[in-house]
């Protein structure tokens, strides 16, 4: 059973799960496990790892349109190096500070590989799900795409400073809170923009027409990619950029754009499901980042 | 740096941590990571693992005297076997049902060893901490001690059925909620009764006099241990029984005992810090379960 099948098994057993975060009794809750070989390229500092791991969970809270309350992390490593642990905690705390959440510690475990499991909690009685997109709505995103793909190239080149810098993203909690009233569907782009659009389509039972020229690609992608294929692979499919991908009615666009503290870009529109999911004149492949070891 | 030193480092950096669960904005939050080689003896079913992992976090919520709201788990394994994953989820859900919490799913990850990280959330504006014990108070516990030590023996003997049965404990959430108004200090006994008493003493700056004859030792311990040393080692030091260890004034004992749905036993009293921590006529060693691989 691969991970996507396994996730479907879990979702079938757990009606509260299946969105970016579970909603229970006015709370949104989400958890993620990351580990060294798959999630933290050589050169990633523990400060960045703490930031990024906790940030990934906070991004799921943001995707529900909920203010973040708190985050915790379990930290496992072959040995406890005080400097590494302190750096991890500082990174975790700094990303929480950025979104007005409290980092409240966690658990320690021995493990043969550096592994961390993070949980973030938000509070809302009116979350936005993946399932509300309507044909005619606009498809929008926050921020830019391809930062994490570019970061990986910098790590590969030995420029860890630039890699770490690009890896420290701002979870879009403040934007999510501003967008919650207008967004008809929303999620974060952790698995890549293309896959996110497919997931919104599946949850909302609709199609999408995406305009590649409108996709805001990070400048860093230009600096590190080689040719058009590489460029679009990084921008659309690599993922882990943790931007918000959402839909809203055309009449709400101006209000949403001016309310969001992060730039909002319209990149396409919602179509009938029968029209499929297109990028310009062709199909947009459902290809994205798949967690694997 | 060993785990206790590492935990102190974390606690120093994070004033909200350091008790059984962190308290933030009316919520209590706690996370734990467990893995196969150290926490799940051969013979432990995935159903029991799900129960126990989520139960351990719910027990921390109970120790704060808070009703439990929800729990999540991240599940990592070398491969995703559908039956194993379903069993884990059933165990997690059943232990949540037992304490009126909602199990809301989690994350999946590849890992070379079965690993799970669980988070439980409770809600209270009036938690009880480890730090409020006063000389003259009584020392009490819920339930019985030595179940997990006995379970390990059954697993070693190949009696997995009995081992799994003893490993499925009831988190004392309902008892914690009934005791919260009377308890002056409370924690759970995950690191063993002896270490718990030492931790209460450190947090409350007091001493304890424990009466061994009063300690409620589970019948299973009698069945599997060999001699008095083995018996007391299992009951006092092995840990992982997830009972509540708490203090209250003598005048509150009768009310607490009748209110708690789990039997409450008085096992000693709080003394001045200068009197140390004693078991009958001698010192009670600060020796307990230390997580190690």
From TrEMBL, chains A, B:
<feature type="binding site">
    <location>
        <position position="60"/>
    </location>
    <ligand>
        <name>Mg(2+) 3</name>
    </ligand>
</feature>
<dbReference type="InterPro" id="IPR036676">
    <property type="entry name" value="PurM-like_C_sf"/>
</dbReference>
<feature type="domain" description="PurM-like C-terminal">
    <location>
        <begin position="135"/>
        <end position="274"/>
    </location>
</feature>
<keyword id="KW-0460">Magnesium</keyword>
<dbReference type="GO" id="GO:0000287">
    <property type="term" value="F:magnesium ion binding"/>
</dbReference>
<dbReference type="InterPro" id="IPR036921">
    <property type="entry name" value="PurM-like_N_sf"/>
</dbReference>
<feature type="binding site">
    <location>
        <position position="289"/>
    </location>
    <ligand>
        <name>substrate</name>
    </ligand>
</feature>
<feature type="binding site">
    <location>
        <position position="32"/>
    </location>
    <ligand>
        <name>Mg(2+) 2</name>
    </ligand>
</feature>
<comment type="similarity">
    <text>Belongs to the thiamine-monophosphate kinase family.</text>
</comment>
<keyword id="KW-0479">Metal-binding</keyword>
<feature type="binding site">
    <location>
        <position position="190"/>
    </location>
    <ligand>
        <name>ATP</name>
    </ligand>
</feature>
<feature type="binding site">
    <location>
        <position position="20"/>
    </location>
    <ligand>
        <name>Mg(2+) 3</name>
    </ligand>
</feature>
<feature type="binding site">
    <location>
        <position position="60"/>
    </location>
    <ligand>
        <name>Mg(2+) 2</name>
    </ligand>
</feature>
<dbReference type="GO" id="GO:0009228">
    <property type="term" value="P:thiamine biosynthetic process"/>
</dbReference>
<dbReference type="Pfam" id="PF02769">
    <property type="entry name" value="AIRS_C"/>
</dbReference>
<keyword id="KW-0418">Kinase</keyword>
<protein>
    <recommendedName>
        <fullName>Thiamine-monophosphate kinase</fullName>
        <ecNumber>2.7.4.16</ecNumber>
    </recommendedName>
</protein>
<feature type="binding site">
    <location>
        <position position="39"/>
    </location>
    <ligand>
        <name>substrate</name>
    </ligand>
</feature>
<dbReference type="Pfam" id="PF00586">
    <property type="entry name" value="AIRS"/>
</dbReference>
<feature type="binding site">
    <location>
        <position position="107"/>
    </location>
    <ligand>
        <name>Mg(2+) 1</name>
    </ligand>
</feature>
<keyword id="KW-0808">Transferase</keyword>
<keyword id="KW-0067">ATP-binding</keyword>
<feature type="binding site">
    <location>
        <position position="20"/>
    </location>
    <ligand>
        <name>Mg(2+) 4</name>
    </ligand>
</feature>
<feature type="binding site">
    <location>
        <position position="31"/>
    </location>
    <ligand>
        <name>Mg(2+) 1</name>
    </ligand>
</feature>
<dbReference type="GO" id="GO:0009229">
    <property type="term" value="P:thiamine diphosphate biosynthetic process"/>
</dbReference>
<feature type="region of interest" description="Disordered">
    <location>
        <begin position="257"/>
        <end position="293"/>
    </location>
</feature>
<feature type="binding site">
    <location>
        <position position="240"/>
    </location>
    <ligand>
        <name>substrate</name>
    </ligand>
</feature>
<feature type="binding site">
    <location>
        <begin position="106"/>
        <end position="107"/>
    </location>
    <ligand>
        <name>ATP</name>
    </ligand>
</feature>
<feature type="binding site">
    <location>
        <position position="30"/>
    </location>
    <ligand>
        <name>Mg(2+) 4</name>
    </ligand>
</feature>
<feature type="binding site">
    <location>
        <position position="130"/>
    </location>
    <ligand>
        <name>ATP</name>
    </ligand>
</feature>
<dbReference type="InterPro" id="IPR006283">
    <property type="entry name" value="ThiL-like"/>
</dbReference>
<feature type="binding site">
    <location>
        <position position="60"/>
    </location>
    <ligand>
        <name>Mg(2+) 4</name>
    </ligand>
</feature>
<dbReference type="InterPro" id="IPR010918">
    <property type="entry name" value="PurM-like_C_dom"/>
</dbReference>
<comment type="function">
    <text>Catalyzes the ATP-dependent phosphorylation of thiamine-monophosphate (TMP) to form thiamine-pyrophosphate (TPP), the active form of vitamin B1.</text>
</comment>
<comment type="pathway">
    <text>Cofactor biosynthesis; thiamine diphosphate biosynthesis; thiamine diphosphate from thiamine phosphate: step 1/1.</text>
</comment>
<dbReference type="InterPro" id="IPR016188">
    <property type="entry name" value="PurM-like_N"/>
</dbReference>
<feature type="binding site">
    <location>
        <position position="191"/>
    </location>
    <ligand>
        <name>Mg(2+) 5</name>
    </ligand>
</feature>
<dbReference type="GO" id="GO:0009030">
    <property type="term" value="F:thiamine-phosphate kinase activity"/>
</dbReference>
<feature type="domain" description="PurM-like N-terminal">
    <location>
        <begin position="18"/>
        <end position="123"/>
    </location>
</feature>
<keyword id="KW-0547">Nucleotide-binding</keyword>
<feature type="binding site">
    <location>
        <position position="188"/>
    </location>
    <ligand>
        <name>Mg(2+) 3</name>
    </ligand>
</feature>
<dbReference type="GO" id="GO:0005524">
    <property type="term" value="F:ATP binding"/>
</dbReference>
């Amino acid at each position: 059973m691969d991970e996507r099948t396994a996730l479907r098994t879990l979702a079938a057993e757990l009606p509260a799960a299946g969105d970016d975060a579970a909603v229970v009794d006015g709370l949104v809750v989400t958890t993620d496990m990351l580990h060294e070989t798959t999630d933290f390229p050589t050169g990633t500092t523990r400060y960045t790892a703490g930031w990024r791991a906790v940030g990934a969970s906070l991004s799921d809270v943001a995707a529900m349109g909920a203010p973040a309350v708190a985050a915790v992390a379990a930290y496992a490593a072959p040995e406890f190096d005080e400097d590494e642990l302190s750096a991890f905690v500082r990174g975790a705390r700094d990303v929480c500070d950025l979104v007005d959440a409290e980092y409240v510690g966690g658990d320690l475990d021995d493990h043969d590989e550096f592994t961390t499991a993070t949980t973030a909690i938000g509070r809302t009685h009116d979350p936005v799900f993946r399932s509300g997109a309507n044909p005619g709505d606009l498809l929008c995103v926050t921020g830019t795409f391809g930062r994490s793909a570019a970061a990986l190239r910098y790590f590969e080149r030995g420029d860890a400073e630039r890699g770490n810098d690009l890896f420290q993203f701002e979870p879009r909690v403040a934007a999510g809170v501003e967008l919650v009233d207008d967004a008809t569907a929303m999620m974060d782009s952790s698995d890549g923009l293309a896959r996110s659009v497919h997931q919104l389509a599946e949850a909302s039972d609709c199609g999408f027409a995406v305009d590649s020229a409108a996709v805001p690609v990070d400048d860093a992608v230009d600096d590190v990619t080689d040719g058009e294929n590489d460029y679009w692979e990084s921008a659309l499919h690599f993922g882990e950029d943790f931007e918000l991908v959402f839909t809203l009615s055309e009449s709400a666009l101006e209000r949403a754009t001016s309310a969001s503290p992060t730039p909002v870009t319209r990149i396409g529109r919602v179509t009938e499901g029968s029209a499929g999911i297109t990028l310009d004149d062709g199909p947009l492949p459902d290809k994205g980042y798949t967690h694997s070891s």
